[in-house]
Amino acid sequence: MGLRRVLLLGEGNFSFAASLCGVAGTHVVATCYESEEDASRCGGAARNIQRLRESGAEVMFSVDCTKLKDYFLAGTREFDCIYFNFPHCGRKAGVVKNRELLAHFFHSSAEVLAEEGEIHVALCNGQGGTPADQPRREWHNSWQIVAVAAGAGFILSDVHPFKAETIHGYKCTGYRSQDKSFCVEGALNHIFTRSTPLLCLTPLSCRIQLESQNISFQVPQVLVDKINRGFLAPNSNHPVRTVKEKLTAGLSQAFPLQSTDSCLSLLHQGHLHGVCPSRVFWITLSPEDTPSTEETSHRLANAVLFSRVDFCQDTDKSVQEGRHSPNQFCLRPSLLPHAQAIIQEGDLLPGTLHVLSGPVFRKCHISPHSLPVFHEMLIVFAVNRGTESSCIQMLVNNIKTTIHSLHQTGINPNISLQEATSCETTELNDFAAFESQLSNIKYFMCMDMDPAGSCVGIIRTSHELISSELVLVFASLNLDLLAMLLCGISDWRMLWTWDTRFLQQFPRGELRLFKSFSLYPPSYVHDVSFWVPHGEPFDEVAFHTIARGVSGEMVISIQLRDTFQQVGTGRSSLCYRLTFQSCDRALSCREAAEMQLRFREEIQQHLGVTLR
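== phenylalanine--tRNA ligase ==
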């Protein structure tokens, strides 16, 4: 392993650089903006420069931090760490000028920083504009360092106090080595790393086997980066798999168990009883893969067979009457049809838990706990009539014991059963609300750690699918929500990040408290107002889904700000506020504005609205 190359910019008296002399395995390149003659006049500078040179460090003068590649040959540009302590344009330069300096600095640094290198920027208290500043300045009056860095592809990965008193021999100087030094009390060191680039979501075709036929289909834009990620694969160390494996291991100690994962089709054909059509992802097969009328009739008959009335409570008349084309397929929104197939084929063994796992896909509103795709764990078993309540309690107690052994947040999670009849629909998260469409629910399984995502599972029973003596119990768990709550992950999007720093925090088979590698990401607010087609209901879920697709999940919030009905015409106008923010990548103001423009075009084209 070679020497760690460190670049220091804007040195005044070179005392910070001198403090790094003698650090094993480190090669220091110390620079300043002034000429050698001017820099040497600063108190102690000449002595520090001599010390640096004697230790083998490089000392450079008249270096402009906004044009770094001009000073280093191609083979010597990759620095592992770049320090810029207390940058300033000088004199009476305001926040705008200093933001511009930082912006040019970050872009310049991107050309000389190693791929996994770090940039350290020390700022006086309040300048950065992050919540770490105490007191915190108003955003418009700060240097907005996280937004400025994002423009060059960097994210803030750590921030901690700049403790000048702990740096041996360090003496802070002022702008360009002036006698009046910067106030370092409460100063902060901001550590930036490279972000993974924003995804370019190009159209994707997926090929799978449906019964005995290989078919392909176009993946919905919002799911392009989420299909076939393999979170539950045998070689995966993803926390979702760890939660699933731990739960399965706990259940196997108390019950006979059969597990099914890999052979479950991603597609469901025909209508889904009770589910609003706008809440599922409909797909179209490639022309050469479209099944014949005879094949379609056979498959549709099976699809209807798997949706017995005991499971269904229709809320959409068109679905109930079967007016959807039998050729239509959707990405499976639930594993229930697969469980019903096992039952119909007579493969369900009384007393044995049948565990099915895999991703399911649902259109939903945008929120930190609303997941358009998540991994469902469905537990199915048959018990003697009259014993279902005690068996359900045994199951829940087993799950509770496993969860208690897994939690990493320092808070002992409590899982409780809530009667479905006691829960108001408005209190349910998207997961529970969608499950309520599929069929009657007996219990909600809730964790009291976080109200917004507290429902992590549901339990339903059926008395009609096997025999009069047996009762079927279906327990559905949202593995993604469980992983979030157990590991302290506040945003579901982090589970799907491509940044390797996420999985590096989770050794195989272990859950740990997650530490974010992107702190205080900048957010950008945009409003959109439009007229809705007269006499037609506005599909808000489709509105949210379009926002997900065009932004690559960069929209974190959508709020209805205003409604207006025009006198005379009766036309209705809606105004929504979109907040763009990434949880794991650098998102610049310009990129957010471009996403907003595409979003305006898409809703006009697909929802038929008229922009105002």
